[in-house]
Structure formats: C-alpha cells, structure tokens
Automatic annotation (TrEMBL):
Residues in Response regulatory domain copies: 4-121
Bias (Gly residues) ranges: 400-411
Name this polypeptide is given: CpaE family protein
Region of interest (Disordered), residue spans: 386-411
Sorted UniProt keywords: ATP-binding, Nucleotide-binding
Source lineage: Bacteria, Bacillati, Actinomycetota, Actinomycetes, Streptosporangiales
Superkingdom assignment: Bacteria
InterPro entries: AAA_dom, CheY-like_superfamily, P-loop_NTPase, ParA/MinD_ATPase, Sig_transdc_resp-reg_receiver
Length: 411
C-alpha cells in the first residue's frame, strides 16, 4: 500500500529536497506540493486518500500551528508532521499541543524522515480503526470553512474620509448580526482609536513582536471589542513602530481574521506600505476613497497606477468610491469616471460635515443621525457585499469579551 504524502511548503528548495527524500522511500509518493495554508486546507478536503501532511513552519498566510489545529478538527485521522529548523523541546511541545503528530528538521536524514512518517501513519491507522469502530466515516471531512469577506479601503489622499467610512461600515455591518473585524493598517497616522475614543493596551505592534508565535490566540489578545459589536485591531501607538509590521505579519493577521469573521474591513490609509499592500492584494474588494475634486481624483489614479505597476492589483480590479459628494459639486460621478482608471462605484457618500463633526470630536460615531448619511452607508455596505449571507456560529471561531480577551469558541 502506497503512503501518500502532501507537502505544505512555500520554499521551493526545501520542497524539492524533502520531496526527493520522500520519493527515495519505498512505498512512498508525494501527492502534491502546496505553497500556502489555504491550498493545504483545500487539498486535505479534496483528497481523502492522503496519509500524512508535512507542513513547513514558515508556511503562510495562516500561522502553521493554526493550520495544524484546523486540520486536527476537520480531519482527525490525517496526521501532520511539522517541518522546522528548530526541533527542540519547546518547538516539539508547541507542535504537539496544536495537534501535530511529530516534528522533523528541514534537512533530515532519510532514516529520520522515514521514522517520522511511519510513526504518523501508524497513529493514523489506529485513529481510523477507532473511528470505524465508533461508527464514523474516517474519510468524511467537515465542510470547508468559508473565508470572511475582506474589504480594504485606501485614501486617494489624506482627509477624504477613509477612516470615517471604515468605522461606519463596520458598525452598520455589525448591526445586522454579522461578525466584523476592523483593522487599522494606516500604520503611521492611523486614528481609528481616536474616532472610537478607544484606550486599549494592545495594537498590531504586539502581533509583530509575536514573530513566529503569531496565532489566533495572540490575535485575540490584541483585539478591542467595541460595545456596538465590531472587534478592532488598532494601529501602532507610535508611528515609528510601523516599520515593524512586515508583509508576513499582515498576511498572517488577515488570514487569521478571515477565518474567524464574516467581514474584515481594513483601513489602509493613503500610503503604500508593505502591510497595506498585502491587504489590497488579498482583498475581495479594494476601494480607493476619493472626494470629487481634481487633487483627490488625480491621487486615486496615481494610487491605482502604483498598485498596477507593483503587481499588487490590476486597475480594473480596484474601484473608486466618491465621498463628501453633493449635487452642487463641480465634479459629478460621470466626470469623475473620465478622470480615473479604475471604475467608479455607482453609490456615493454625501457630504455630512456638521453631522460628523460631533462624532469625530467625541469619539462617538453612533451619534451621527443624519438620515442621508446613514442610508448611504447602508447602500455602500450592500454594494460591497458586506451584508450578504448569514453569520454561522458553527463555522467560525468567535472572539468575545470586552478588550479582546482570549475566549475563542471552537467548533
């Protein structure tokens, strides 16, 4: 009987080396190589004949130990062996606590690799016998977990209302009963905390400090739970800390958030940073917020051009949302469409300076009562697909408790 091994490894050199060793083992074959955690999860669901997964410690976007936990829940018969540079006691203990069946070096000897795979497969066969005796189908998998909808809002320039929109969209979506995570990725000048009058000891900077230990529990500890429903990940308290937030951290945080929330909203600011670029790249909707004036629309065109040249996102896959719109404006949506490359969304957000002034000064966005503005926010939320579908508590791990304490409800 052939033992089929799935490699979850992004590094091509490591994948080639381990794949070569697996091929040297009699009766073993590489069932495939997957370069992301999402692809590993999809392969585990689509190929019930897998015998073992070799999962590299540097795989992303979801933290590898989170992938191990998810596979252990959804495919209890499928063993995972963690591939890591560090095979010490602490690394082994963390892997086993997550549900892995072993740890192997990135450069193992043939006998070491064979031994780890053999132990994992023996455990798997025992588990399959146990499941069969209990009347369960060992090859049956739970339905694949659907990812939350990720929408990234970026400003054409400063002052166009990106943060205001992100906050009000989060509040409006949460009011429908959907689970919402609002992430401030305007790392140098982001002020979601100020607009919500939040004083919270944790921010995205704490996640950067976590390094390879970044997982769902660490993210949960960093979240602030707003009384109105949204869970908020604040930007750094000090602008210079922005340099610590790498693309890898951003990718991991967004992957974890999408696995647990129905909607993830990102305030990407008006600057192209590594972290914000990842949020734009991964987004289901990447929206440039602009006001109906020449400087903002030129800024929107420049930003879309930068995304395209850096291969972050094609111009046609982004869109422009007009904020602070008024019928008396010299530039109306039809003219704006001729001035920018990306499509301009049909919905607009009206100018509501006085209505928003008190809310901004007091950190109380729920005090905004202007009917036209609230109606527009609802229309934008619907247009972005934030209100579609029903929240499913059985499919998503939901954080709870004011201040983002570690209280994930696991399925």
């Amino acid at each position: 009987m052939t033992i089929r091994v799935l490699l979850g490894i992004e590094d091509r050199a490591v994948a080639a080396a381990l794949g070569g060793l697996v091929d040297e083992l009699p009766g073993h074959e590489v069932a495939g190589v997957r370069a992301s955690s999402d692809d590993v999860a999809a392969a585990a669901a689509a190929e019930p004949g897998l015998d073992v997964v070799l999962l590299h410690r540097d795989l992303g976007p979801l933290a590898p130990l989170e992938v191990v936990r998810d596979l252990a829940v959804r495919h209890p018969h499928l063993p995972v062996v963690l591939v890591t540079e560090d095979t010490g006691v602490e690394a082994f203990a963390a892997a086993m606590a997550a549900g892995a069946r072993g740890v192997v070096s990135t450069r193992p000897t043939l006998s070491e690799l064979e031994d780890r795979i053999r132990q994992a497969v023996e455990w798997s066969r025992a588990m399959r016998r146990h499941l069969t005796t209990a009347g369960a189908d060992p090859g049956e998998s739970l339905p694949p977990r659907r990812q939350g909808r990720l929408v990234t809002l970026c400003g054409a320039k400063g002052g166009v209302g990106t943060t205001t929109l992100a906050i009000h969209l989060a509040l409006a979506t949460a009011a429908t009963g959907r689970s919402v995570c609002l992430i401030d990725m305007d790392l140098q000048k982001g002020d979601v905390a100020g607009y919500l009058d939040v004083r919270h000891r944790h921010s995205v900077s704490d996640l950067a400090a976590a390094g390879d230990g970044l997982d769902g529990g660490v993210v949960a500890d960093a979240l602030y739970v707003h009384p109105a429903g949204p869970h908020v990940l604040l930007g750094p308290g000090q602008g210079e800390d922005a340099e610590e937030i790498s693309a890898r951290v951003s990718r991991s945080v967004l992957g974890i958030a999408r696995a647990r929330y129905d909607v993830v909203l990102v305030d990407g600011g008006a600057y192209v940073t590594e972290a914000a670029a990842v949020a734009v790249e991964l987004a289901d909707e990447a929206v440039i917020v602009a006001t109906p004036d020449v400087p903002a629309l030129r800024g929107a065109a420049r930003l879309a051009g930068i995304w395209a040249r850096l291969a972050i996102r094609k111009e046609e896959d982004a869109s422009v949302l007009l904020a602070k719109h008024d019928r008396r404006n010299e530039i109306q949506p039809d003219l704006a469409r001729k001035m920018v490359g990306p499509p301009v969304r049909a919905v607009t957000v009206p100018a509501a300076f006085r209505a928003l002034e008190e809310a901004a000064n007091t950190g109380s966005p729920l005090t905004v009562k202007q009917t036209a503005f609230r109606k527009a926010i609802g229309s934008v939320a619907a247009d972005l697909g934030l209100l579609s579908g029903e929240p499913d508590e059985d499919e998503r791990e939901t954080p709870g408790g004011r201040g983002g304490g570690r209280s994930w409800k696991r399925p």
